[in-house]
Amino acid sequence: SLHHVALYTLYAFLLFFKPSEAFLVDFLLSRNIEGVDSEKDLSRSVLAVFTYSRMPALLLCLLLCRVCGCKAVVVLGSLCGLGMTFLTITAGSLPVLQLSQLLAAFAFAGHIAFDALQFSGVTAEGFQIVSHFTKGFTLASCCVSSLLGQFLRNSVGGSTLFAITMAFEGLACIVALLLPGGGGGDRGGEVAPQRPDSAQGQGGSRWGSAKGSPFFEVWQSMWKGQVFLWVLLWVFCYAAHDLVLTNWQILAEVKLEQYSMRNLNGYMWSAGYMVSAVLTLVTSSCKGLYAYCPFIMVGAPLIMGLALFGMGLSTIASFYSSFVFFQAAFQLTAAVRNASIARDVGATREGGVDRVFVLSAILWAASGAGVGFEAMIQGLIQSVASLSFADEVVWVALGVILSVVSFFFASFFLVCRVKRERRKRRRGI
């Protein structure tokens, strides 16, 4: 319903209104905290905690989602985000900063629960609308807040920007309590019409199957439609996006010093989200977009990979513009992925299935595998003492990885098409 979409959209806008986000690295380095003396120290000792905490946070939140429901995890994630910002403002030591990044990992795990919860109480026909609207207004919130942060930064200081972020996160926590759904497995919010009880299976199982657990339903759903392909794609795109969003300010700081330019992170952060928001909202009713998902699966990692080349090998101006392209490609693909998987999962059963949990488990599987790949890359970088995200070669290497992924998907779809053509010719004979 429109009421549900409005609540989901309001929550997303409030949660991501963070005028302080683009200046996190600059703020932390200005605090003169012992052990955080340079961009490299910050990358290896603080931001790395976030990377390594992601997997435990995802697993714990998946368990909580099954026991308490996705809405409870969304509320918990909102509270963790509030706590993270509070510790960032008040931290006076390295361990406290590391704790803030641990809370950040749980906050981000809550975002995945929201990606599933947003389809609760929405029919399959509305999946595209709700996915694009929540994503679009999330991006619009990031855009507006980044501009606000850039305008206010010099006049009010970093601590005030983080305080504004806290205020909006507090409002998001309140709205989270009003979101549809709740209870163990979100039993109150189905995303598709129910079959009569008599059609739910002779065993009377709410899952419509007497032979499997909820995770068996997740496994079955994984192989429906293009779900597995989206999961596979997201392992690499999600890992690259997380690494970029966690560490892009590190390289930006180096390039700003190299070219003796003032910090324009807020403007570029805003520009990236503005372009992403416009693309996502404009395509909210574009049905044809979903008819060409293979092109999106090939094009998204290619564009993201080329953007990473631009970020690593270019001047500061090209660095910023490449970041905008990277963001736009990822965010539009994220909206399409969420709605596409929701459609395929919603079609796997027509009665009695806790689709919100099944959908959340699939999204967590994709993100969890991506986090594992992300942690592997982070560990590889940290194993080389002289290497960090302040080095351009790291960004070029990430671009190569995504380009290879794009080539793999292009080859896969080409082989599938050739096989289909051969089968058609044989039937014609």
Task: Characterize the structure shown.
With 429 residues, this protein is mostly helical. The chain is built from 14 helices and no strands. Helix 5 (94-117) packs antiparallel against helix 13 (355-383). The chain starts with a helix and ends with a helix. Mean pLDDT is 84; it is low at 183-211 and 347-352.
What is the count of β-strands? 0
Question: Which residues sit in consecutive blocks of at least 5 with pLDDT less than 50?
Answer: 183-211, 347-352
Structural class: mainly alpha
Strand content: under 5%
- Count of separate DSSP helical elements: 14
Topology:
Layout: H1 2-15, H2 24-30, H3 39-68, H4 70-90, H5 94-117, H6 127-156, H7 158-176, H8 214-222, H9 227-258, H10 265-282, H11 293-313, H12 316-346, H13 355-383, H14 392-428
Helix pairs in contact: 1-6, 1-7, 3-4, 3-5, 3-9, 3-13, 4-5, 4-7, 5-13, 6-7, 6-10, 6-12, 8-13, 9-11, 9-12, 9-13, 9-14, 10-12, 11-12, 11-14, 12-13
Summarize the structure.
By secondary structure, the chain is mainly α.
